[in-house]
């Protein structure tokens, strides 16, 4: 039987290395979550409110009562509910005789995802266009970059009511707030990436009569791709935060911002429900980040991967 070619062996080695890397990353995430859960419940075991477990498992009755040796207000059931209490809150009705809280939060997350995605797209395009303009027109860069930086020093909670109330464009106003938090990382990341190309390569292309457009499309943008995707991953989570904040001063109650605002009013009687909404918001940000990461892997596959020498 003929032996495999060197290129096939290198491809198999790279695939095996990537599989091991993904496994390690997954294991790292699981270990981190377990450590966080242990730290959470450990804090309550040491300094929380007294608690009792009364249940049955495989016909065996479990009756355990614990009185923590210390008392810290931050670890109380009001501020830091037990993880199993938060998990149970997902199955409880959001309102009396209403659907489960999980279904309501998932539906709200879908609405917020739409706002964040539109805002992310607007901010990404705006940031990339600004970076391209700044690279080619140094005068505009020196004039406008300080204002771009200064725009991020204004608290988003102060800008959100102005945009939402001023435009009166419904959910699109919220998307614009998300784009406000998105465009800055993309602008700075793309600006750095567009200048990452080797100046000698640029001079070589120009010596072959390549125009500005050819240099941009065939050299600058490919060289800037890793920088741009890094900025996009930062902006992905920022767009979710912007969408949630933008929903607060508006009359929109269909998204996670409205759900968090509503559950916050009943925090004293049901803190676990608010924590459940916070977890869903965090999961939405992670989902958005993962989508951008998958697109990055698809676009940049094999471009910056070192070759594996055959044995």
Give a quick summary of the entry.
The chain is mostly helical and 311 residues long.
Features:
single chain; about 300 residues; mainly alpha; MetI-like fold; 2 domains; two-stranded antiparallel sheet
Strand content: under 5%
In the CATH hierarchy, what is the architecture of the largest domain at level 2?
A: Orthogonal Bundle
Report the CATH topology name of the largest domain: MetI-like fold
Rg for CA atoms: 25 Å
CATH class of the largest domain: Mainly Alpha
Number of strand elements:
2
Report on this model:
The chain has 311 residues and is mainly alpha-helical. The protein has two domains: 6-80, no CATH class; 101-300, MetI-like (MetI-like fold), CATH 1.10.3720.10. It has ten helices and two strands. It has a two-stranded antiparallel ribbon with strand order 1-2. β1 (51-57) and β2 form a beta hairpin. α3 runs antiparallel to α4 (138-151), α3 packs across α10 and α5 (156-167) packs across α6. It is globular, with a radius of gyration of 25 Å.
List the helices and strands and how they pair.
Blueprint: H1 6-47, E1 51-57, E2 60-66, H2 83-91, H3 101-136, H4 138-151, H5 156-167, H6 171-194, H7 199-207, H8 212-247, H9 256-265, H10 271-300
């Amino acid at each position: 039987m003929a032996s495999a070619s060197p290129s096939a062996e290198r491809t198999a080695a790279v695939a095996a290395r990537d599989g091991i890397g993904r496994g390690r990353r997954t294991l790292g995430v699981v270990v981190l979550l377990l450590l966080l859960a242990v730290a959470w419940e450990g804090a309550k075991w040491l300094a929380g409110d007294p608690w009792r477990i009364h249940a049955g498992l495989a016909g065996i009755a479990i009756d355990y009562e614990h009185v923590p040796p210390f008392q810290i207000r931050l670890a109380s059931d009001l501020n830091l509910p037990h993880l199993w209490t938060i998990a149970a809150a997902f199955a409880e009705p959001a309102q009396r005789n209403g659907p489960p809280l999980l279904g309501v939060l998932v539906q709200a997350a879908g609405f917020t995802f739409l706002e964040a995605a539109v805002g992310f797209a607007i901010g990404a395009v705006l940031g990339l266009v600004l970076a391209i303009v700044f690279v080619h027109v140094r005068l505009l860069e020196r004039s406008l970059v300080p204002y771009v930086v200064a725009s991020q020093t204004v608290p988003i909670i102060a800008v959100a009511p102005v945009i939402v109330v001023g435009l009166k464009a419904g959910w699109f106003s919220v998307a614009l707030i998300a784009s406000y938090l998105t465009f800055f990382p993309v602008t700075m990341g793309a600006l750095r990436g567009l200048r990452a190309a080797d100046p000698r390569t640029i001079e070589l292309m120009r010596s072959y009569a390549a125009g500005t457009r050819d240099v941009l499309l065939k050299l600058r943008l490919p060289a800037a791709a890793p920088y741009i995707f890094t900025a996009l991953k930062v902006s992905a989570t920022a767009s979710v935060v912007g969408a949630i904040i933008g929903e607060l001063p508006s009359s929109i109650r269909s998204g996670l911002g409205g759900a968090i605002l509503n559950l916050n009013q009943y925090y004293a009687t049901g803190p676990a429900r608010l924590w459940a909404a916070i977890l869903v918001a965090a999961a939405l940000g992670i989902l958005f980040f993962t989508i951008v990461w998958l697109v990055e892997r698809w676009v940049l596959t094999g471009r910056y991967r070192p070759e594996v020498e055959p044995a």
